[in-house]
Amino acid sequence: xxxxxxxxxxxxxxxxxxxxxxxxxxxxxxxxxxxxxxxxxxxxxxxxxxxxxxxxxxxxxxxxxxxxxxxxxxxxxxxxxxxxxxxxxxxxxxxxxxxxxxxxxxxxxxxxxxxxxxxxxxxxxxxxxxxxxxxxxxxxxxxxxxxxxxxxxxxxxxxxxxxxxxxxxxxxxxxxxxx
Length: 179
Prior knowledge:
Helix content is 28%, strand content 16%. The protein is α+β, with helices and mostly antiparallel strands and 179 residues long. The chain has a domain at 6-126: Arc Repressor Mutant, subunit A, CATH 1.10.10.1650. The strands form two sheets. The protein has a five-stranded antiparallel sheet, with no helix packed on it. A two-stranded antiparallel ribbon has the order 6-7. A hairpin with a 6-residue loop joins β6 (54-55) and β7. Residues 3-50 form the DUF5606 domain.
């Protein structure tokens, strides 16, 4: 499941795809049928990537990606988010048996089921996540080594361009008298 670039925006319902970024904020496109594009302010809006969201567990937190994959593997019909709280609790006992039942509220379950219904028909739901890119945007150390290796392989006899090859600078020959 590839959820890279899919975010939840605080204060807004639904999920959004991160399209880009400009000076004013993040450019987001809604995943619902309307495909609304919005610009969320960098300073006042909180974005949560679905790859980074975890659910409270009894011993350790559970990744949302794993819970969504377990929901997809459920045999039969996945209940709607408006289903009874007991139905949602029973679903979560099946798909996330190690979740902390005291800390995971029914509202959290409703939100996760709503997100599942938004994502299940998208092609990114069935494609694999890129290998080795688990939430890391920084360049790899190998990239730095490659740049140093390229600099080291530069020929020793390569010189800076001579002054004769550079265009002559224009000099302002006018003078102001009486200033």
